[in-house]
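> example.struct
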């Protein structure tokens, strides 16, 4: 009986280390980091990243960076391991960076100014 509960505790701890919630949190990027970059360079970096990874605006709301999968009940993200591949994680992080760059560009009125 003790080994059964030990396994549950260890599995829970391991799931928390690589949980889906942690992976989704990594996709959300603050736009304040990009406010120090000159507008022309920021727009060029954003466009290059968007050319490689696509536009986040074209995604469905459930596919946006940081969005919780529809079939995952609220609160279970810390118990579910993040089984996505490395490429999928990097792609979603890049989309999060593009969205953050878009917010900085819009706030600073870099395009069309």
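> example.seq
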């Amino acid at each position: 009986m003790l080994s059964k509960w030990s396994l549950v505790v260890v599995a829970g701890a391991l799931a928390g280390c690589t949980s889906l919630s942690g992976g989704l949190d990594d996709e959300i990027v603050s736009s304040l980091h990009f406010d120090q970059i000159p507008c022309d360079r920021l727009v060029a970096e954003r466009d290059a990243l968007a050319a490689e990874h696509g536009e986040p605006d074209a995604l469905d709301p459930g596919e946006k960076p940081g969005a919780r999968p529809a079939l995952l009940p609220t609160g279970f993200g810390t118990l579910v391991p993040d089984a996505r591949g490395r490429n999928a994680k990097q792609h979603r992080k890049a989309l999060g960076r593009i969205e953050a760059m878009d917010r900085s560009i819009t706030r600073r009125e870099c395009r069309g100014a």
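> remarks
The radius of gyration is 18 Å.
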